[in-house]
Specification:
546 residues; Arc Repressor Mutant, subunit A; 56% helix; disordered C terminus; Rossmann fold; Sig_transdc_resp-reg_C-effctor; DNA binding; 5 domains; five-stranded parallel β-sheet; 28 helices; Tscrpt_reg_LuxR_C; three-stranded antiparallel β-sheet; 10 strands; HTH luxR-type domain-containing protein; alpha/beta; globular
Length: 546
């Protein structure tokens, strides 16, 4: 069941069934639920049976032997863990111990390189490894399957998706010690020492999943949960036989904690093809490769697409992509992945959120990346001394891609970023600043890449309907490799585009400008470049009209 299907089923529950469900998930018995709601126990059982059916589970006792209640708990453990009481969590953890070895995860594919990397870190002595990536890449799936394979079973410290719902580590530690047949101490330090002794004596995997809600904007634990530092110090003890994996969208910046970082990448296109093949979905279409690139190999996107293509498009990838390529966030679960992280960023680091939205104004097409100065140009309301800190906040959250000093947004992130930017008061200023950045970043045009880079400014002015400024981009003069142009103060961009063979771009831009700019000396230059371009392509009749 997907997150969207889960939410729909939950929201459609009647008030009474939701009451029963919440009490059941809190760990109450049927008798206690019946007493508190003043109904019969048989009525409680009927409600729970109906709830199981609502969530796509078979009848509660479909074969009169196996209850579906554990499956219902597991479903809420995945999508709404904040509703699970401590008693229910303990039952779930014990159930996981008995089933972790035997149930294969069919969605765990293509992670041989990641497993090898984690093994290498383990061999090198790492005791705590943080798997870092944006939402949906597969951090938790990798961590759970790796710990299953390496240790047989593991204990988990789940962190709620919402900060206000995080269970105190003191309570979680007590539960995990009891899970390991150890009695917790009266003091937190005593309980930690008992955990250390247990992990020294026995090979046990440890998972801390979804760390970021417990972190502040600087990657440090927020005040109510600072004791996680003490837990991590114990888990990093070299004498332990355990290995701890942490999953997080944000990097951890606690100097007192020794953590090895593993940045997890998306799955390869070959893995997507393999996954689709096993589900009888055609993979000989180029659309699959385009989809893979657009979503960066995101594992969750792969699962969502496979389900949608199977159900709604009879396994036809090409047809699905033709219908949906115009909206990269058409699937609700994918949209939720992106919007959730952006909403959290807005709440906890407004400056980084503003920068991310403003980065949506760059096109990432002819010029696929932007230098760090292009990011700085969008921080007009932030002191220069804080610029790198804001950029690093996006890097730490895997919301901006970067390599060799160049930055870009994945198409899915950009779609949400530019959507929010258009609705904000920053739309015009962001485009003007971006245009000025491109103009200032090119002082000569000798090669095609330099011409394309200078031409990016045109698109930004076009986006805000400033055709006069777009016209000025085309006539802006720069140093030329031709001496006679330099004697005239340089070569204008329109001429550079023409001499470098970028005629279609020049003609399209000139036509748009001429239709919207009424007069001026710059307009004469645009007319001349357009006429010469038509002459080059052989369209003499249009040239005469121009």
């Amino acid at each position: 069941m997907s997150k969207g299907q889960f939410d729909k089923a939950f929201n459609e529950l009647t008030y009474r069934r939701r009451e029963v469900l919440i009490k059941f998930l809190a760990g109450q018995t049927d008798e206690a639920i019946a007493k508190s709601l003043n109904i019969e126990e048989v009525t409680v059982r009927q409600h729970i049976k109906a709830i199981c059916e609502k969530f796509g589970l078979e009848n509660e006792f479909s074969d009169e032997r196996r209850s579906k209640r554990p499956d219902l708990i597991a479903l809420f453990h995945k999508y709404k863990p904040e509703l699970l009481g401590d008693r229910t969590l303990r039952k779930t953890a014990i159930l996981e111990q008995t089933t972790q070895k035997s149930i294969p995860d069919k969605n765990f594919v293509g992670r041989e390189t990641a497993i090898a990397s984690l093994n290498n870190r383990d061999i090198q002595g790492a005791k705590v490894i943080l798997i870092h990536a944006k939402g949906g890449v597969g951090k938790t799936t990798l961590a759970r399957n790796y710990l299953k394979q390496k240790f047989g079973y593991y204990i988990e410290f789940p962190i709620a998706k919402e900060t206000q719902n995080i269970t105190p580590i003191e309570s979680l530690l007590e539960e995990r010690l009891r899970q390991l047949n150890e009695e917790p101490g009266r003091e937190f330090g005593v309980s930690l020492e008992r955990l250390r002794q247990k992990l020294q004596a026995k090979r046990i995997g440890v998972l801390i999943d979804n760390l970021e809600p417990a972190l502040d904007e600087n990657g440090k634990f927020i005040e109510p949960h600072r004791r996680y530092i003490e837990l991590l110090r114990v888990l990093a003890d070299p004498s332990l036989q355990s290995l701890t994996l942490i999953t997080s969208r944000d990097r951890l910046h606690e100097c007192d904690v020794s953590v090895s970082y593993y940045p997890l990448e998306g799955l390869s296109v070959e893995v997507w093809q393999q996954y689709f093949d096993t589900r009888n979905i055609q993979t000989n279409s180029s659309a699959l490769t385009v989809m893979h690139n657009a979503y960066g190999g995101n594992a969750k996107a792969m699962e969502i697409f496979a389900g949608a293509i199977q159900v709604d498009y009879a396994g036809n990838v090409e047809q699905y992509w033709q219908m949906n390529q115009g909206d990269l966030l058409v699937e609700a679960d994918l949209r939720d992945l992106v919007t959730t992280q952006m909403n959290r960023l807005e709440e906890h680091h407004s400056l980084a959120f503003k920068l991310l939205c403003r980065l949506g104004c760059y096109r990432y097409q002819d010029i696929a990346t932007v230098s760090i100065n292009g990011l700085f140009s969008l921080l007009w309301d932030v002191p220069d001394s804080q610029h790198r800190r804001v950029v690093n906040s996006l890097r730490d959250r895997s919301l901006v891609e970067f390599q060799n000093g160049e930055y870009w947004l994945h198409p899915v992130i950009r779609e949400e970023a530019i959507s929010r930017l258009r609705m904000s008061e920053d739309w015009e200023t962001a485009n003007r600043n971006a245009a000025e950045f491109w103009t200032k970043s090119v002082n000569k045009v000798y090669i095609m890449e330099e011409a394309l880079q200078a031409f990016e400014a045109y698109y930004h002015y076009l986006a805000i309907d400033d055709f006069e400024a777009a016209c000025s981009v085309m006539v802006y003069r720069r140093k030329s490799k031709w001496k006679w142009h330099n004697l005239e103060g340089g070569e204008n961009l329109g001429t550079s585009l023409r001499t470098l063979g970028l005629l279609q771009k020049l003609m399209l831009a000139a036509t748009q400008i001429i239709g919207n700019v009424l007069r001026g000396i710059n307009l004469v230059s645009i007319h001349l470049n357009l006429a010469q371009s038509y002459w080059i392509v052989g369209n003499l009749s249009v040239r005469i009209q121009v």
